[in-house]
Amino acid sequence: MSIETVQRWVLTALICAVSSFPVGALVVVTHQTRDHDSAGAVLLCVMTAVIGIVAVTAILLIHQRSPWSLFLVIGLLPAIGSAIWTWTA
After folding, report:
1. What is the tens place of the pLDDT at every residue in 33-84?
2. Measured on CA atoms in the order 7, 21, 49, 73, is the torsion positive or negative?
3. Could you tell me what percentage of the chain is helix, strand and coil, using 3-state DSSP and rounding each to the nearest 5?
4. Of 26, 28, 58, 59, which cross-links 48 as Cys (Cβ 3.0–4.6 Å)?
5. Under 8 Å between Cβ of 76 and 49
């Protein structure tokens, strides 16, 4: 494996780690906010989706793939899970 390939995978792991902390926090805060402020909970879900999509796009660009891919749906999964958890519980 070349050094460039290793660098790409290390940067991918770093992006995943850095983006998972705010996404996880937003999911929990969204669930706790639903009773007090429904509009705020929706905004937090949107913020979660944006962070997820930006992280997946950055990873695709690092690996020299097109940013317009079905992999962008992976970035939406935390927001979808947060919305389901928030409004069905």
Report:
1. 877 778 888 899 999 999 999 999 999 999 999 999 999 999 999 999 998 9
2. positive
3. 80, 0, 20
4. 26
5. yes
